[in-house]
Amino acid sequence: MKAAQIQSYGGSEVIEINSDTSKPEIKNEQILVEVDSASLNPIDYKVRLGYLKEMVPLNFPSTLGGDFAGVIQEVAPDVTDFKTGDLVFGQAIVLNGGSGSLAEFAAANIKNIALKPQTLDFIQAAGLPLVGTSALQAIEEHLKVSKDQKILIHGGAGGIGSIAIQLAKMQGAYVITTVSKDQIDFVKQLGADEIIDYKSQDFSEIVKDLDGVFDTVGGDVANKSLDVLKKGGIFVSMVAQIPPEQALQKGVTAISQNTSTTSKKLERLAELIDSGKIKVLIDKVFSLEQVKEAFDYLEHSHPKGKVVVKIKSEHSRDSSTDSQ
To answer: What is the fold, at CATH topology level, of the domain defined by 131-256?
Structure first.
């Protein structure tokens, strides 16, 4: 089978398309999925660059990618909730015991997958798992957003931010977001009530007394965000670590979020998608052969929504049963 792999840490130049990779062997509580599409997240290039090698060293060659959507080809003997032929989406990143999603076939844990939303195609579904569960965890679990609260979402045009805006609006909140000038119309369509151009405006001089801030950006945004919260407000960040004593001093709560992509959260997302309450936004689709360009685009541009790699071509659709 084909897979996008690396033999060493580095930039996009270390990625190779290996056409002779063995199909992953599944373990207990795993499924083998024929991957139709996979999407890229910042964690994928951070893994490739070696940022996490001290915590989780890779065994080379290593297949990249986490998010996927596809069709189950095989289930472990102890799996009862899924069956061959099920259309599923979820995570197969090596960091959580999967085999990597940028491949024609991937092994994934059943605790990290769910049935695909019925109203989405594979490309759209592949763009949802990590960003959707990240936004869900922040908005519903950590910030507990409710009607008429004022919420600031940094990076509202990104994969996570675009879902977070929709979730916060769904709860009836007043949503403020920071984006670049060319992304203003995009977030307006998502329902943002107030939009700040972070390149020409300083959000800390414009907003105050907020109930919550969700940070997907990092940098100096974190410290400034604490100052725009009201007493008892909550700051949640995907990237920043705020010392607890600093938050305590300001009378707010600071949470560094590690996303947990669970079946329960994925099922919740599927329900919200199929009921029309939120939608997943795809910026650009690449082929597996263009995976280097896909990584470069994600790392060096500011995508509006998700970057997806279409794994299954029409040719592979005809010959997939022969893939080894």
So the answer is: Rossmann fold (3.40.50)
